Amino acid sequence: MMRYIFGLCLSLMIMSCDQPTAPAPVKATVDGTEYELTEVPGTESKHAVKRDPLGKIIEEGYIHNGLKQGAWTTYTTESYLPESITSYVDGVLNGPYLEFDPQGRVNLMANYRANEYHGPFAKYRIGRAEQTATYVDGKLDGVFAEFDFRNGKIKQEVHYKMGVQHGPLRYFNDAGEVTLEYLYENGERVSGGIKE
């Protein structure tokens, strides 16, 4: 009987160690035929530049061993203003990410870790906040808020815990008063309704 229990425990331990691992992040590589590559003195890195048919720079950044590295900038076709700035480590999105409108104002601000949102996140319209949130490993965590970009007043807030609604969900009127409120626990609505 003892051998049977020992064998069962050993089998369970071996099976638990053989759990599938998370897939490796997709890596951004650079095709040398689409980019002009210039050696960076004193390093193994290269500066990569992509141009449109008229010779205007539309994307640039650095590569190391064929993978995007550091900050990469794309440019609008109408001007020399940045369209986006993306951060990479060994071809994987890591660090700040910014998108801009044609006037150079921030449209989107995010942070990445291993190709997933991680950290503060915000969407803007005409330079004013429309949405703010925080992500942890690609999942909403904390308060997700929506604003009226015209006056900056909050319209809605939703609380999340590792990607699941947890806490209050509130809607606001133009005076900033709560008009509707629900309470969520682990994704399930447990109470709430219209506020008088």
Provide the descriptors you would attach to this structure in a database record.
8% helix, disordered N terminus, single chain
Report on this structure.
By secondary structure, this protein is mainly beta. The chain has two domains: 25-117, no CATH class; 124-196. The chain is built from one helix and 16 strands. It has one helix at 2-17, and strands at residues 36-39, 46-51, 57-64, 67-75, 82-89, 92-100, 106-113, 116-117, 119-125, 128-136, 139-140, 142-147, 154-161, 164-172, 178-185, 188-194. The longest helix is centred in the N-terminal third of the chain and has 16 residues, at 2-17. It is elongated, with a radius of gyration of 24 Å.
Question: How are the elements arranged and paired?
Answer:
Layout: H1 2-17, E1 36-39, E2 46-51, E3 57-64, E4 67-75, E5 82-89, E6 92-100, E7 106-113, E8 116-117, E9 119-125, E10 128-136, E11 139-140, E12 142-147, E13 154-161, E14 164-172, E15 178-185, E16 188-194
Antiparallel strand pairs: 1-2, 2-3, 3-4, 4-5, 5-6, 6-7, 7-8, 7-9, 9-10, 10-11, 10-12, 12-13, 13-14, 14-15, 15-16
Structural class assignment: mainly beta
> Could you tell me the strand content as a percent range?
over 45%
Q: What is the rounded distance between the termini?
A: 67 Å
Q: How many β-strand stretches?
A: 16
| Residue runs with pLDDT of under 50 for 5 or more positions | 1-20
What does the overall shape look like? elongated
What is the N-to-C succession of helices and strands?
Answer: HEEEEEEEEEEEEEEEE
Mean pLDDT: 89
In the residues, how many domains can be counted?
2
Number of helical stretches of at least 4 residues: 1
Taking Cα atoms only, what radius of gyration do you get, to the nearest Å? 24 Å
Q: Roughly how much helix do the residues carry, as a percent range?
A: under 10%
Largest sheet: 16 strands, antiparallel
